[in-house]
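Quick check before the chapter quiz. The format below is the same one you will see on the exam, so make sure you can read both the input and the output lines.
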Amino acid sequence: MKTVAKQVTVRGRVQGVWYRAWTVEQARALGLAGWVRNRSNGDVEALIEGEAGAVEALLERLWDGPPAARVDHIDASDKVPGSLIGFAQRGTL
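Here is the expected output.
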């Protein structure tokens, strides 16, 4: 099992629509570690770490998001996996 990490920025109507909480639910269901937070510019940012297939599955789900969300663009870049435990919602940066 290969562990990977991705830094993700999601753009669109993704704040005020339960996007962060939904992301936490999805990530935990897939057994992933990391965090998600709002950015002051209206984006949502996440660091996702875990088994490569599960990370890719979450990246695909992020395009849909919760019902009220509208995702216009997702940037994802590779990061060096660390030793993250659990998946948390962080405050706005």
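If your answer matched, good. The helical segments are 19-29, 52-62.
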